[in-house]
Amino acid sequence: MELKYKRVLLKLSGESLMGKNGFGIDADMLAHYGNEVKKLVENGVEIAIVIGGGNIFRGLQAERSGIERVQGDYMGMLATVINGMALQSHMEQIGLYTRLISAVEMRQIAEPYIRRRAIRHLEKGRVVIFSAGTGSPYFTTDSAAALRANEMNVDVILKGTRVDGIYTADPEKDPEATRFDRISFSRVISSGLNVMDMTAFTLCKENNLPIIVFDVGVTGNMLKIVQGEQVGTLVEL
Question: b or e along 103-118 (b: 16 or more beta carbons within 10 Å of the residue's beta carbon)?
Fold first, then answer.
């Protein structure tokens, strides 16, 4: 089968693991993501994943509870490791080979991040799950996704969301909003469209790394994207 994208990085929010629950990890969502990733692996796609931690803890919310920003960010990083462990456990149950890699060293749980080793895992067909963000405070998991995607030399970032692309306005609030099939990095910035945080977005723009924003909840979407079908919104130079 002809692939348009051979190596991809999937960015998932922590909230996407909640399903209909208000917090935590939903078994049905784990199964959905595992099955979608398995389709890609079976078709020869090399896939890395960066997962957020917002379903467990958000660093930015910590300040309101009296927790210092840096401490809160590290707590958020630990939440991403918990999500990564859950993803890894489910994916291995359905027959995928995985490696959980943490930017904060915790050898009993995850490998430390070594770029060449991570690339080798991808080449061997293992699903690489990057956790603990960048390992530094003040950076979001969007920034971690942009950083790891560039380091892994992926062809595209797949930014999974609840909506089917980028719109002229928030489609959940404005029924008149229209969806873009393609949009330039510059247009996203000038229009103030919220795709990723600016640190992450700028890193992709400077390195000409395209981003596809798509509805991750629709079965088969990821496979269609790597096969070159028009799904969601493509952001490129």
Answer: bbeeeeebbebeeeeb
CB 36 within 8 A of CB 214: no
**pLDDT tens-digit series, residues 24-36:** 999 999 999 999 9
- Cα–Cα dist 119/125, whole Å: 10
Structure tokens at 6: 């051979």
Give backbone dihedrals phi and psi of 95, rounded to 5 degrees, phi first. Answer: 95, 10
Residue ranges per domain, the chain?
Answer: 1-162, 163-195+203-208
Q: What rounded mean pLDDT belongs to the chain?
A: 94
Helices 141-151/198-206 angle, 10° precision: 20
pLDDT at 60: 63
Residues with Cβ < 8 Å from 172, sequence gap 6 or more?
163
Domain covering 1-162: architecture? 3-Layer(aba) Sandwich (3.40)
The bridge status of strand 179-180 relative to strand 98-102 is unpaired
Q: Is 98 exposed, middle or buried (0-12, 13-18, 19+ CB in 10 A)?
A: buried
